[in-house]
Specification:
Elements lengths: L2 H5 L2 H17 L3 H12 L4 H8 L5 H40 L6 H8 L9 H14 L4 E2 L5 E3 H4 L27 E3 L5 H9 L4 E10 L11 E11 L4 H16 L5 E8 L2 E10 L22 E10 L1 H6 L8 E8 H9 L4 H6 L2 H4 L7
Parallel strand pairs: 1-4
Antiparallel strand pairs: 2-3, 4-5, 5-9, 6-7, 7-8, 8-9
Helix pairs in contact: 2-3, 2-5, 3-5, 4-5
The structure holds 3,4-dihydroxyphenylalanine.
Length: 365
Amino acid sequence: MSQDSNLVSAESINLAVSSALSEIDKANDLDELKLIKLNHAGDRSPIALANREIGSLQGEAKSEAGKRIGQARSVVKEALDNRMVELQNNREDSILVAEKVDVTQVLANAKSSSLVVGARHPLTTIAEHIADVFIAMGYEIAEGPEAEAEWFNFDSLNISEDHPSRSSSDTFYVESLDSGVVMRTQTSPVQMRAMLERKPPIYVIAPGKVFRTDELDATHTPVFHQVEGLAVDKNLTMADLKGTLDHLAKTMFGEEIETRFRPSYFPFTEPSAELDLKCFVCKGVNKKEDFDCKTCRNEGWIEWGGCGMVNPNVLETAGIDSTRYSGFAFGMGLERTLMFRYGITDMHDLVEADIRFTSNFGLGI
Ligand code: DAH
């Protein structure tokens, strides 16, 4: 018998099978099993080498060897397959254990050590708080998309095609300049959506994210938040607007706060105004020799937001009869509101939302 024909002997094959089976059994993980598969079922494994010898055998010896080797291969293959399933299951089990999240753990640790629990962002809290103030007066929350049709964001609000704010140096256009879609630059488009969805009387409040192509610095951020308000009813006047905003100002800054309207211009309101707050740092006292007020830059007043009586063109665009109904609207920046309220001087703090910053505001505002 030649050296090679020894490879196909029952003894050799049995030995190859038993050593394969014992190693397969001992494999600790899928990587080890892969190596074992290579050694015992790969091209250079004893069984594969034996298989190659079959061709040189004759007659009965050939068919017996063929049978033996065929059986050996299927025994080894089955053992490999079974072990692979076992090891895969083990791995999944151990991942479940290793990646287990104990939702009570952080809280338990926080009580006993300095580990921190998550904190709400003050913007979320203030937006909800303002919404609550208006819900208490009978307003509904209205919503619109952040990627908004140019028509809703500009045209429907009486903002002409050549208005500078429409240029791509101020507005983020989605995909291309003629896509007709912008990232909304204000929450005012929600006014038009609310008017198209409802019939007067309409009282809605709409907090939300807005986008402008500003660089992030101490007072600007390309993504910020506004709260929009809109009322459409019979006989609404500027006095209703002033009373409503005074109420909001008091809930935000305390009973003592004083407000004033300053004439302004917005295409979607007529007349338009800016709502100013009396500076609560210098109490509206313009620059004195010994005090330079950084909060109001010695103006005595701080600009809080825009407002006005809804332009009749806008009411008509929404299909509302401007001879029967009038409306008022307003829009305030939420970051600005928080900055005034808490003396926050750098917008980065609001954008970064480091938990060491946000956790100071608690759950209520
Ligand atoms: N949308 C304006 C802005 O972003 C703010 C504003 C002004 C909203 C007047 C209004 C309004 O509803 O009536 O600057």
